């Protein structure tokens, strides 16, 4: 009897070891992959949001930057992660364009899309001594000067800020390729080229030009929005200039496809609470970033519409390969 009791206890212990009670998700740190270098807009959004998310999810949040290939390396790392909720990421608008550009077989459908976290409206910024004081001045010069006389920069060829100015020119009735695009590794080097006189204008968020704006080395002449942006109240909009074009970069919380519904729902709920935390909202706004949060399914609808508009511009720019 004693032997049987001992055997039963041993078997019970083995069963307990082989079939432990399922640990409640999450029971270890979560990694957020950022497909761009530290210090950029995506990185800022990730770190501000991550601080709040850590409080709401109850586990440490590790921000990992995976730049390279105009964001392809980091976005690919998110899509290939194990769908267990422990590796998620921040996606940027480039996911809407990779397949069209022929750079990667990545689309918005490659991700489990939770919600946009923030938007950064595009603007046009010129050197402080530029002769172009308004969007009208700039567009008139594009029409009058030989093709390629004016140039713009802000990201790689076919990147989001390239689409921004391409769409603006198209909406103004101007062939988008009349302005020469100078590819760059981001806003900072592009703005330095503008200040040095090598590039006519910076297409991108004026938030990236904040230090140069404060130093009065550059001027933002238009925002690609319907309403004036609170952080740039003196800058007129494309709507005021009677050009029907609005554009903003967005940053979305995403995961790999195949996340179990219970894990997706837990991540979504914690992220929604994190995004609503006052310190998260205040820090984003302080940086000139507009925080947003989408209801379930709304982000996918927004991104699909965004992709259609952007792909049409890429075709006008002669960059579409599919």
Describe this structure in words.
The chain has 322 residues and is an alpha/beta fold. Helices cover 39% and strands 18% of the residues. It contains eleven helices and eleven strands. The chain has helices at residues 2-18, 41-57, 72-79, 98-101, 135-144, 160-171, 187-196, 210-214, 261-276, 278-286, 298-316, and strands at 30-34, 61-65, 87-91, 111-121, 123-127, 151-153, 180-182, 201-204, 218-223, 248-256, 290-291. The protein has a six-stranded mixed β-sheet with strand order 2-1-3-10-4-11, sandwiched between helices. The protein has a five-stranded mixed β-sheet with strand order 7-6-8-5-9. Strand 6, helix 6 and strand 7 form a beta-alpha-beta unit. The chain is globular, with a radius of gyration of 23 Å. The N and C termini lie far apart (75 Å).
What is the secondary structure topology, with strand pairs?
Blueprint: H1 2-18, E1 30-34, H2 41-57, E2 61-65, H3 72-79, E3 87-91, H4 98-101, E4 111-121, E5 123-127, H5 135-144, E6 151-153, H6 160-171, E7 180-182, H7 187-196, E8 201-204, H8 210-214, E9 218-223, E10 248-256, H9 261-276, H10 278-286, E11 290-291, H11 298-316
Helix pairs in contact: 2-9, 2-10, 6-11
- Strand count: 11
This entry's quaternary arrangement is: single chain
Distance between the termini: 75 Å
Helix percent reads 25-40%
Strand portion: 15-25%
Which sequence of SSEs, written as H and E, runs from N to C?
HEHEHEHEEHEHEHEHEEHHEH
| Cross-sheet strand order for the largest sheet | 2-1-3-10-4-11
What composes the largest sheet? 6 strands, mixed
Give the low-pLDDT segments: 15-21
Shape: globular
Please tally the helical runs, counting DSSP H or I stretches of 4 or more residues.
Answer: 11
